[in-house]
Each structure stands twice: as C-alpha cells, then as structure tokens.
Amino acid sequence: MFNEKVVPDESSHMQDNRDRRERLNANHMQMCRFTGEEDSEYAKVGPELKGIYVWVIAEGIRQSTSDECGIFAN
Fold this sequence. Notes:
The protein is mainly α. Helix content is about 40%, strand content about 0%.
C-alpha cells in the first residue's frame, strides 16, 4: 500500500529549474521525520533545505538593499 504513488509526478516537485528530485523511501507521514543528520533520507533533503534557506536570505538582503537605494521607489 505505501509503495503506491500518492500524487502524480508533476505535483510532487516545485517545477523550478533549480529543482533537484530525489526519491524518499517514506510515506507522507514519515518523509519529514529523521533520526538525525546521519539519516540517509535526511542526507537527501538537508543540503537542499540549506540551499533554499541561503538563497532566501540572500534575496532578502538584496531586496532590502535595493529598497534602501530607492530602486523600487515610485
């Protein structure tokens, strides 16, 4: 039962050219639960989450700097 797809492929990722797809050996209840950084499933998603976090922070800083310079002022 848990080996069947729950959602179609096109609904299971962010559809972004930066998107890297990894198959997790878990159902929807288990896919966000890890035993630690050494967990093989965490190793698949941990670096991706960190990359997204770093990008969001960098974009926020860039946006904040642009706003302070009046680039987006009306």
